[in-house]
Amino acid sequence: MLCPHAHQQNGAAERKHRHIVKVGLALLAHASIPLKYWEDAFVAATYLINRTPSRVINYETPLERLFQQKPDYSSLRVFGCACWPNLRPYNTHKFQFRSKQCVFLGYSPLHKGFKCLDPSTGRVYISRDVTFDENVFLSLNFIRMQELDFVKKYLSFLLISSHYHMIKGEN
User: Fold this and answer.
1) Nearest Cα residue to 42 out of 81, 79, 5
2) Of all helices (H) and strands (E), which one includes residue 14?
3) Mind listing the pLDDT tens digit for each residue in 49-73?
4) What average pLDDT score do residues 8-31 get?
5) Quick one: which of 145, 23, 25, 31 has its CA closest to 82?
6) 43 with 102: CB under 8 angstroms?
């Protein structure tokens, strides 16, 4: 029996946890995705780690050890890259766009599909039919910076406008 809060007693679990955290944070940093999506990054990290050969288990993958079959690497994509999911099942009107540019957030643990984030709405779509451009990254930080820049410009406009009305003597 292990004592609670005694991380010294469960070193293997602590090392694996640290490994998942490091890989997840590296995925977020590489794609310039905010920390609020840490859960998706850690799920993707676990997905990747389970498909990576390990020296400790004679260069087999954890998935291979568990299920006695080689993993399929054909579905691997670059975390955070631009993607265009098929939105037809999500559409409520016939004339809505069938796809839009999203950010790839990883693999759905519950469905056989990819998780795609629409940066304009924050909605996550799960789709099996996705087109990827693994050389393009939509920086969510950049999108937020654009929003902040717009707010700054609007506030400075209001300040100048109110200053102009004060000079003219209008209230």
Assistant:
1) 79
2) helix 11-31
3) 999 998 988 999 999 999 999 998 9
4) 85
5) 31
6) no
Residue type, 97: F
Q: Which H or E run contains 48?
A: helix 38-49
What's the pLDDT at 17?
Answer: 87
Q: Which of 13, 16, 21 is nearest to 38 (CA)?
A: 21
Structure token pair of residue 151: 């707010």
**Residues 27/115, Cβ–Cβ less than 8 Å:** no
N-term to C-term CA, the chain: 74
Structure tokens at 100: 């839009």
DSSP 74: T
The answer to whether 137 touches 80, Cβ cutoff 8 Å, is yes
Cα separation, 89 vs 134, in Å, equals 24
Q: Count CB-CB contacts under 10 A for residue 121.
A: 9
pLDDT tens digit sequence for 69-88: 999 899 899 999 999 998 87
